[in-house]
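Q: Convert this sequence to structure tokens.
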Amino acid sequence: QVQLVESGGGLVQAGGSLRLSCAASGRSFSSRAMSWFRQAPGKEREFVAVISWGGISRLYTDSVKGRFTISRDDAKNTVYLQMNGLKPEDTAVYYCAVRNTAYTDGNAYRIRDYDYWGQGTQVTVSS
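A:
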């Protein structure tokens, strides 16, 4: 049974940092692209970042470029999201997801392209 478990969320002041982790179990996802999405209260789930198999390429939504970094450790079957310079507008539940392809491209924001999702971890940034 495949499981994705996010951790590392919490409450942080604006300008602070958090590192999210997403540990996968049940099978290896080293050949798949993996992503982070987020959903703020009253808003739709939105794409944050994607990393290709092998960590060869990464894409970010414009609002987090230069502040967030996605990475992966395939030996641990884990993907990370380092979040620096956090802003109140980053407040959301953050989800990791496994894409149905190995690659990053302009369609990585499409929720229907993802096969597996975690349960989410709350990130709250106070002003």
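The CA atoms of residues 53 and 112 lie 19 Å apart.
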